[in-house]
Amino acid sequence: MTIGDIPKLGAFRKPGKEYVVPYLPVGSVVGDREIAAVTRVLRSGETLSGGGRREEFERNFRDYVGAPYAMSTTSGTVTLELAIHLLGLRPGDEVIVTPQTYQASIQPLLQYPDVEVTFCDVRQDTLNMDPRCLERLIGPRTRAVILVHYGGHPADMHEIMDIARAHDALVIEDSAHALGSVYHGARPGALADIGCFSFHSSKNITTLGEGGMLTFADPEWAERVDRLRGNEVDGSFLPRRHTFGDSKENLPGGLYPGNAYTHDLVALRKHGTNATLPEAAAAMGTSQLRALPGMVERRRAIAARLRETLGRFPGLVEAPEAPEGVIHSQHLFTFFVREGTHGINRHRLLHELDHRGVQVPLRYFPLHLLPEWRARGHRYGECPTAERVWFHEQVNLPCHPALSVRQVDLLCDRLEESLRAACTH
After folding, report:
1. Reported pTM
2. What confidence score (pLDDT) does residue 152 get?
3. How far is CA 365 from the centre of its chain?
4. Where are the transmembrane segments (predicted)?
């Protein structure tokens, strides 16, 4: 297969088409409790930025995840930018990443042209980073590993952390899909050195459409992140030997006591940014966090129905379940078709589902094949499992708590009809 053979992402999204089972851009349910929480903030007359509600949300999130620090930002992308900044990357360093995720997971690395980015292939059942592949790739120049808990299924963290620790590499877990998941008694966001969460409208909870959270255990990182998200420079300062003008004493009114605004900057790393999560967004986040268990339970119930339907086609499709000790939040529901002489043609199945009103996006296009990464030298064939699964086997179905009982019934019926139709062609 060549790049020209890649099916277009929009092939199954027809403009203006009404789907009986849509793949909604909203991943949580917003009700009266969230509306009331936001309304109270707006009517309080208090600051809408940098107040107590942000602190409350961070405290609740920290307790839920089990991480010593939880620091909010304005988006998941900003969260990832800050996390990668904390790595302290230098020219010649290597970062190992997964190809199976949304582009924002590794997009900040494009700002580091002298850092080598290596793509690690994925497991064919979970689409998470494959520890066996990681062990082959990791080496003395590896500074960090960036993984994703794909769809909410936690990665093999025990193995991955053992491998990373043996090579003194830091690990960032992109947990944007995994809020509500559990890995052997611990939650994503507290399984590695840094956890990153997104509260985009499509995620398991939202903070008015955008928002993010960093989790970690290092108090020095907490101080740095607080400076960076507050639009301060991340660097060290020394008193200036010479002030602007003649001297501070000659400035009108003695407006500049001590060394205010008169410092030499040492070891500048990055200018800060304004990433303050607004108070109304934080209040909604607290409310959504309380509702999270019920929404995850609903996702898992829908997933169970879908697995029951797929179970009627043994050998033709596979929908692996999480192993013992692992709870899958079901941010995404992914299954795989097994193509072959007696198998199902995935492309045909997608058309059958679309024809019957089930909206099916394909998530996610292998990142190493995107133009920006091909420009950095990456090519088809680097991650054969991720490539084979995405081009031939992977199917994502709607699985979100806003689906009605009727829609879930229709989804299961249309899925079975589409599978039978795809088998006959």
Report:
1. 0.89
2. 98
3. 15
4. none
CA gap 371, 349 in Å, rounded: 28
407 lies in the same domain as 324: yes
| Known active-site residue 203 | yes
Pair (114, 172) in one structural domain: yes
Paired with 238 in beta bridges are 264
Q: Beta-carbon neighbour count of residue 175 at 10 Å?
A: 31
Task: Flag whether 402 is in a domain.
Answer: yes
Buried-state track 282-300, b at ≥16 Cβ within 10 A, e below 16: bbbbbbbbebbeebbebbb
Q: Identity (one letter) of the amino acid at 172?
A: I
Is residue 332 a part of any domain in this protein?
A: yes
226 with 347, same domain: the answer is no
- CA–CA separation, 94 and 89 (whole Å): 8
Q: Which residue range forms the structural domain that includes residue 383?
A: 3-10+289-423
Task: Please tell me which residue, 108 or 268, carries the higher pLDDT value.
Answer: 108
CA distance 113 to 376: 9
Task: Please report, rounded to a whole number, the percentage of residues in the chain having pLDDT higher than 70.
Answer: 86
User: Do 255 and 198 sit in the same domain of this protein?
Assistant: no
- 265 and 313, same domain (yes or no): no
Give pLDDT, residue 261.
45
3-state secondary structure of 184: coil
Question: 8, 17, 203, 248: which is the annotated catalytic residue?
Answer: 203
Strands of 212-216's sheet in order across: 69-73, 212-216, 194-198, 170-174, 142-148, 94-97, 116-119
In terms of domains, do 207 and 87 share one? yes
Number of domains, the chain = 3
pLDDT at 15 over 80: no
Residues 239, 366: one domain? no
Four-point Cα dihedral 174, 179, 185, 189, nearest 10: 40
Of 220, 243, 270, the one marking the end of a domain is 270
Length of the chain: 425
Long-range contacts of 250-259 (CB under 8 A, 24+ apart): none
The CA distance from 313 to 306, in Å, is 12
Contact 144, 171 (CB under 8 A): yes
335 — pLDDT class (breaks 50, 70, 90) = very high
Residue 28: pLDDT band by 50, 70, 90 thresholds? very high
Over residues 279-330, the pLDDT tens digits come to 999 999 999 999 999 999 999 999 999 999 999 999 899 999 999 999 999 9
Q: What radius of gyration do the chain's Cα atoms show?
A: 24
Whether residues 41 and 97 fall in one domain: yes
